Each structure stands twice: as structure tokens, then as C-alpha cells.
Amino acid sequence: MSPSVRLQEMIRVIRSARTQCEERGVIQKECAAIRAQFRQADNGGRSHNLAKLLYVHMLGYPAHFGQMECVRLIASPRYSEKRVGYLGAMMLLDEKQDASLLITNSIKNDLSHSSPYVQSLALCTLACMGSAEMCRDLAPEIDRLLKTANAYIKKKAALCAVHIVRKVPELAELFNTAARSLLTEKNHGVLHGAVVLITELCERNPSALPHFRKIVPDLVHIMKGLVMSGYSPEHNVAGISDPFLQVRILRLLRILGRNDDEASDAMNDLLAQVATNTDSSKTAGSAVLYETVLTIMDINSECGLRILAVNILGRFLLSNDRNIRYVSMMSLQKIVQTDHNAVQRHRGTIVDCLKDQDASVKRRALELSLALVSAANIRSLMKELLLFLSCCPPELRAQTASGIFSAAERFAPSQRWHIDTALHVLTTAGGDVRDEMVPSLIQLITTATELHCYTVHKLYRALVADISQQSLVQVACWCIGEYGDLLLRGECEETEPVQVTEDDVLDALETVLQSHMSSPATRGFALTATMKLSTRISRNVDRIRSIVSIYGSCIDVELQQRAVEYNALFKKYDHMRAAVLERMPVIDRSSPGHDNGEPAVIQAPDKTKNNPVVTLTQEPTNQARDLLDLLGGSDEPAQPSTVQPAPAAPVPDSGSAGGDLLDLLGGLDSIPDPSVTVYEQNGVTVKLRCDRQTDVGVTATLVASNTTDSDITQFTLQAAVPKCVQLQMRAPSGDVLPARGAGQVTQTVHLNNPNKVSLRMRVRLSYCSGGSTCQDTVQVDSFPASASH
């Protein structure tokens, strides 16, 4: 291929290359020829060579050696060369290149050129790659061109002004007057540029909002003309008159009407007219209606208008286009809290979207369905959600189960219905249930005293049928251990009578202990349940003793420790086994000691309520001292101590074998947990708790919770400290913040401060809420006092 081939011929040769190596050879040969011609002083084909070089650049090959040629062509008096030079500048130069500063003077001269086409070339280049310095130098020229009589130049100048405002926000006030005057133009291109410019001015400079709110009547007049105008071939798109301009105007109205009653009232009639007269059968009409809905919901609109907007979104749910359905549910999710009743009218359509084949549509339909649950529709809507749980994709099962648990906890019509729903979830998706749901369900079961027999029978049947669902197995083992005597009686009137023997129950628990599907935590539940049955049955105590002794040499340390302690109860402390393994009292979940599944204080009458201080001076009884030995305590008698009792501390019966021990432990919950709130936004709260503090270090825990109605995912915490302080961060407890404070995420940090400088820490949060990613940074300048200082 000769060096002087035309652009079309070069493209044909490159495309005909059979291998990448052959293509690279052709391009290298042509680039060498272009370089040689660039070096010639008088070259009439410079624009053709630069055009070929731009094509090479588009293919991804180096073309930086053509930057100076762009500068020369821009300075040329010929339009054909200027056009290629400006195109090359937009493609090969950016604001970081020093060569871009060389064209500033050429652009300024061309902005004053007599030809509007040369002016447009300069405007396009400045709007594409103008640096902050170029924008400051040329901003007065752009303001002058905004007032010219040529509509073509006005349109280009308006878009160039948008770029200047983004690059140098302090120059925004320069264009306020000119931007407002552009709204009197009839040319749609100029109007579009003016609306975009005013929108940018309002977003970058909120102080300009009062100035531009005066143009709301002008915008309403322009919008009405577009809505009511007849067919115009020049602007018609699928039966909608210039939908691009309509969308831009609606977005600007949304900004101007936000938190302003006067501006909102001026556009209410227009929004109602657009909502009723726009055809939604085509994509263009749907886009206009969607922007109308967003504007109605964002301004101080009338109640009837908001209902009309919700109905439009309801019509979108019936569309065959999945994108429109997805957008509709996203919008309904944002307004369901403020217009709950209006969204409820479309509940059936939303539930039908759970059957959609698209995973993203299913996810949005699930979130919206959970948000629509109320006390009035809990039964009917929960049937649909449970049906969806049985067939939903694996990636949605955990979110569905969590949402059902949360909704049932808030709106359950009865305790039996609540328990039946929770057990249905555990049976269907027990492997996907979060860990904190197990203690939550156990707490529910303990409070429903009249349903203990019914619950233990139902859980036993579920355990025998399937031991693969770990959460279900854990709850079932706990209930069998607590209420095994009710199961053996077989006197439950609410279920079919089933005769269960002691051997049957122990066989079921032994199967759980030996199953390869059981996790260490599940085996711990089963072993404790087996041990508790030793006080509830009479004929198989020896079998229980043998089962427990087997696990005294288990490889799992936690399980081994439990088995050793239980063996000690059998051998050395058998006289107090019945007292230690007696049935658990009702768990008070609202007490300070119960948080996210942690043990709660016992709900019992507080006989020391009127005594502010209790002095314990007596020695523990022999049985209580034996129990202290079992738990690793000392043989020394207890020293006199003064303990502040907890508000809900238990007062055990004096005849109980471990009563004195419970007295010794009473009141520990009254110790305050010093913490400070370091972050509280978007429903996310992060508290800093100081666990241990020494002269040269601090151990603290960051505790995050979520008060919104949906789970927050991908939650991460990062911390930074001064160089003279050493930071160690342990692994977080999780990355999901359950909705409505159902759980927490904790992360422990240790700060080593050998130089004893003032401690400061910067914490960066990142999380995903409502489909959008949020990042924030907070500064911690002081740490709370430690309880163990």
C-alpha cells in the first residue's frame, strides 16, 4: 500500500487483513508514512493524513504524534482543515495535555469569526475538552454568543455554557440573565439548551432558585404548547411532540417546585393535563408520563394529583415491557410510605409480578410486596409470599424469609398464626434463614405458654421428616429439650394425637447428633436437649448418660466442653441436676440483657424493687459452691459485696438449689454500656463502644444497626488513624444490616498508642440501600469511657 492512499482505501486494506499481526503491520506502515508527511514544511494533504490517523486512533493504536498537527490545522484559514483539526483535538487532546493550552487563542479567534459554522466548531471543541483555565478565559465570549441572533449558535453556546458551569461553578452567575432570556425563543433546539442550562445552574447554585422560580409560568406555557399542539413532522416522535424537550422541562419544574408552595400551585394544572392527555402505549409517551409522576411526587402537589400519579405507575405495571415494570416498582417503593393506601390498590398487580421471569423484576416486586404488608392484609398477602418462598430463586430466598419473619412479627393476628408462619418458613427455607431468627422464634415460643404442647408436637414431626434445615432443627431441639414431657404425654388437643415414646425422641436427637448435615451449633442444641430430657423422662436416663459421654472426646471443642460439663453433672453433682436443668422461664425480650439473640433476664417479680442497694454478706450454700466449682469458680467463700439490682432482675425461690448463685449474679445488667453515636443517616446508626482502655491502648467495638424497612447489604467499615497509632481491625460479624433493628453488625478495633497522643479515628462506611450504593466518612475525635478502665 503506497503512502498516499486515500482514507477509504486504507480502511479497505485494514479490514481485509486476515490476522491481527497483518493488521498491525499495515497500520505501522501507514503511520510511518503519515509521520514522514507531517515533517514536510508544505504539505497539502495534512487534513487527509490527520483523518487517517484518527481512524487508527479509533482502532486503539497510538496516535499521540498527531497532536501538534491538530494545533496547526485549527490555525488554518481553510474551513475543511479547521473541521478536521477541531475533530482531532476533541479526540486526541484533553485538559491534561499541555498542547490543549495552545489552541485557546485559536478558539477565541474562531468564536468571533464571521462564519457561524466556524463558530460552531470552536463551541463544540470547548464544550468537549475545555479545561478550567480555558473556561475562565472564554466564558465572556460564550455569554456574548448566547445573545446573538443566530439560533444555531445560541443552541451551541447554551450547551457550551453547561460545560463551563460544571467545570467552574463560580462562573454560574454570569449566565443567569442570558439563560432566562433564551426561553422566549421558538426554536426547540435553543429551548432545549436553555432548559438544560437553567437546570444545571439551579443544581450547582441553590441560591439561584428564587431567581429562576419566576420563570415557572413561562415553562408552564411552553409545556402546554407542546402538549396541546397538533402534529408537527419536525418534532413528532411516536405521536408525542418533542418528548425530549418535555422531559427536560418536567425535570426543571421538579427542581423549582420542590419545597415551594407557590411554584407547586402554578404547575399543578399542567401536570394533571400532561398525565391525562399523554398516550402511554409508546415508549416516548411512557417517558413523559414517568417524569410527570416523579415531578408530582417531588413537589408539594395536591392529594388527588398524587393518587393520579400512583395510578399511572399502576398502569405501567401492566406493560409488556419489563423495563417499564421495573421502573414503576422502583418509583412505588419510594412513595409507599407516604401514599400507602394509594399503592395498596395495585397490590394484586404487584404480587403478580412475583411470577415474572426476570430476576430484577422479581426482586423489586418482593421488596414492594413486603412494604405493603399491614394488619388488614397480613393473612392474604402472606399466603402469596409463602407460595413465592417455595419456588423463588436461591438468591432471593434469604431476603424473602427475612421479610416474612419481620412482617409476621409486626402484624401477626395471633400467636398461633405467628408460630405456624415461622415454622412454615423454617420448613421451606431453613437453610437460608439468618442466625438471629432462631432466638427470636424461641422467644416467641416461650411467651406462648398455652401453645407449648402444640408447638413441640409440630416441631417434632418436622424434625423427623427433615433434618437438613439447620434453623428448623435447632428450634425443634430446643423445644424438645424444654417441653419434652408435653410431647411424651400425647395429650395435645390442637393436633392429631400421636403416641411418641422416649426411645423415639432420643432416636431423633441422636440422628441429629450423628448426621453429617448438622453444624456444630446444631449438635450443641441437640446435646443440650438430650441432657435436659434426663429430668423429663424416667426410663432412659442411662442411655442419655451414654450419649453424653461419647461426646466428651469430640473433636469440636465447644461440643466437648458441654459434654464434659454434663458428665460432671451426672457423676459429681447429680443431686443438683434437676435444679440446673429445670425449664427456662419466660424470656423478656425488652430487657436490657437481651440483644440480638443474647440471653435475657428472667421475667419474675422483683421483690427488691424498693431496695436501692442489696448487700450480700453470706457465704454460698454448699450446693451453690459446688456449682461454682463446675463452672470453674473458686473454693473460697464469697466476699461481702454491694450490687445494684437490675430493674427486671430475677428473684429466685429460696428453696432452689442454685438460688444463692442467682442472687450473686443478679443486678449485673444495671452496669451501663458506655457508647457514643458516631454516625446516624439514612436509617443507619453506628455506635462506638469502648470495651477496654489502658494507658497505651484502647479496644473498642463499632456497632451498626438499621431502622429502615428493608435490609441494607454490602455493609463495610474501614478505619484510619494517625501514623503514630497502630490499628488492628478484626473481622466483622456480617455484611447485612437487618431491617427495623432486627440485628446488628459489630466490628472490634484495637488501637495501640505507645506515644500516648490524642486518639483520633476516621471511619468510612459503605453500604447498599434500596438498590443504590452509599459511601460516607465520619471523624471520631473522642472515645467513650470504658467500663473496665
From TrEMBL:
<keyword id="KW-0472">Membrane</keyword>
<dbReference type="InterPro" id="IPR008153">
    <property type="entry name" value="GAE_dom"/>
</dbReference>
<dbReference type="Pfam" id="PF02883">
    <property type="entry name" value="Alpha_adaptinC2"/>
</dbReference>
<protein>
    <recommendedName>
        <fullName>AP-1 complex subunit gamma</fullName>
    </recommendedName>
</protein>
<dbReference type="InterPro" id="IPR008152">
    <property type="entry name" value="Clathrin_a/b/g-adaptin_app_Ig"/>
</dbReference>
<dbReference type="InterPro" id="IPR002553">
    <property type="entry name" value="Clathrin/coatomer_adapt-like_N"/>
</dbReference>
<keyword id="KW-0333">Golgi apparatus</keyword>
<dbReference type="InterPro" id="IPR013041">
    <property type="entry name" value="Clathrin_app_Ig-like_sf"/>
</dbReference>
<dbReference type="InterPro" id="IPR050840">
    <property type="entry name" value="Adaptor_Complx_Large_Subunit"/>
</dbReference>
<keyword id="KW-0813">Transport</keyword>
<keyword id="KW-0968">Cytoplasmic vesicle</keyword>
<feature type="domain" description="GAE">
    <location>
        <begin position="671"/>
        <end position="784"/>
    </location>
</feature>
<feature type="compositionally biased region" description="Polar residues">
    <location>
        <begin position="610"/>
        <end position="624"/>
    </location>
</feature>
<dbReference type="InterPro" id="IPR017107">
    <property type="entry name" value="AP1_complex_gsu"/>
</dbReference>
<feature type="region of interest" description="Disordered">
    <location>
        <begin position="587"/>
        <end position="662"/>
    </location>
</feature>
<dbReference type="GO" id="GO:0030121">
    <property type="term" value="C:AP-1 adaptor complex"/>
</dbReference>
<dbReference type="Pfam" id="PF01602">
    <property type="entry name" value="Adaptin_N"/>
</dbReference>
<dbReference type="GO" id="GO:0016192">
    <property type="term" value="P:vesicle-mediated transport"/>
</dbReference>
<dbReference type="InterPro" id="IPR016024">
    <property type="entry name" value="ARM-type_fold"/>
</dbReference>
<feature type="compositionally biased region" description="Low complexity">
    <location>
        <begin position="652"/>
        <end position="662"/>
    </location>
</feature>
<keyword id="KW-0653">Protein transport</keyword>
<comment type="similarity">
    <text>Belongs to the adaptor complexes large subunit family.</text>
</comment>
<dbReference type="GO" id="GO:0006886">
    <property type="term" value="P:intracellular protein transport"/>
</dbReference>
<dbReference type="InterPro" id="IPR011989">
    <property type="entry name" value="ARM-like"/>
</dbReference>
